[in-house]
Amino acid sequence: MNRTDTFFLVHNYNTVPEELIEYCNDHLIIDCSDDGMTPDKLKAAGYNFIHVENTGHNLTSYFHYFIDNYDNLPEFVALLKGNIIGRHVSKEFFDRVYNNKWFTYLYQDKKMWERYKKGGDENSIASLLSEEGYIELDSSWYMNQSHSYRYFYDMDDFYRFVYKDPVIPRYCNFSPGGCYIINREQILKNSKTFYKNLNTLMEYRKEVNFPAEAYLVERLMPWIFTSRYEVNPWMEDEEEFANMLEKCEKSVEKHRLWNNLRLKRFRLLLGAKEPVFLED
Predict the structure, then answer these.
(1) Using the 8-state DSSP alphabet, how is residue 275 labeled?
(2) How many CB atoms lie within 10 A of CB 96?
(3) What pTM did the predictor assign?
């Protein structure tokens, strides 16, 4: 196997990515392990790594690297997870694509091919355009799961918040897990402030149960690196961005109130009684 000169930027959690590092000449492991052992193992192996607080996902690790190294970025960067082989791609697939010098979706899940291909599960929200071409119905389904949100509850609103007058797609085309091969110019098409502001959306709560807004950014990743849409002015201004987030938070509060009222009315229509609370 020939080592690639593509720089491997590896977000790592409780693993030693020995197999992965064998593919490259240069790397940085951003380690967020909390098992008390992995940092010592990485050090003993002689790997280039830094240890950071675990935020539960990998996207902020990549964006912090872009910000900190904005004037000295490698020509090609692979955005990876320490466990990507076997989790998001097969070794056979990675062997074929790791040295690509073009924008590459690092995703392949053969277990889902029968379900996602033509003639598969017609009720699935996901489909495949190719082995790595995952598309998902733009329904914002993930915003109503176990991760709570503060500023956004809908992918369409998020598209419009980041970019001026974008086409709202019927499907989202992205790499589940947020792993890609990109080049320096694709990173530099956005400013440091742009990445800082996106990190703000994903780091207002730093814990394993990360903000649901990270799911929105995950689905925006191909646009971030390849779209030529004009960004809205607040994406380039931290103070204006903060002011806009205050408005977004108020909008979300109204949305929650309306949803609660709607559910209350629905329960009343079904004959459910209102709960009685004892006064102090």
Answers:
(1) P
(2) 13
(3) 0.91
Rg (CA), the chain: 21
Q: Read off the pLDDT of each residue in 59-70 and give the average, rounded to a whole number.
A: 98
The CB density around residue 239, as the number of other CB atoms within 10 Å, is 8
Quick one: which H or E segment has residue 134?
Answer: strand 134-137
The two tokens of residue 187 are 């990173």
Count of CB atoms within 10 A of residue 225's CB?
17
Residue-by-residue DSSP string for 155-168: HHHHHHHHBSS---
**Residue recorded with tokens 């503060």:** 150
- Which one, of 225, 182, 188, lies nearest residue 76 by Cα? 182
Token digits of residue 269:
């229509």
- Going by the DSSP 8-state scheme, the letter that residue 4 receives in this structure is B
Q: 33 Cβ partners below 8 Å, 6+ apart?
A: 12, 13, 14, 15, 39, 51, 54
User: How many Å apart are CA 31 and CA 83, to the nearest integer?
Assistant: 12
Least confident of 169-178, 211-220, 264-273: 264-273
- Provide the pLDDT for residue 23: 98
The number of C-alpha atoms within 13 Å of 243 and in the hemisphere containing its C-beta is 7
Q: Is the pLDDT of residue 30 over 90?
A: yes
Residue 98 and residue 23: Cα distance in Å, rounded? 8
| Widest CA span in the chain | 73
Q: Tell which residue, 1, 179, 187, 173, has the closest CA to residue 76.
A: 187
Q: Quick check: 235 and 243 in contact, CB under 8 A?
A: no
Interacting residues of 95 by C-beta distance below 8 A, sequence separation 6+: 1
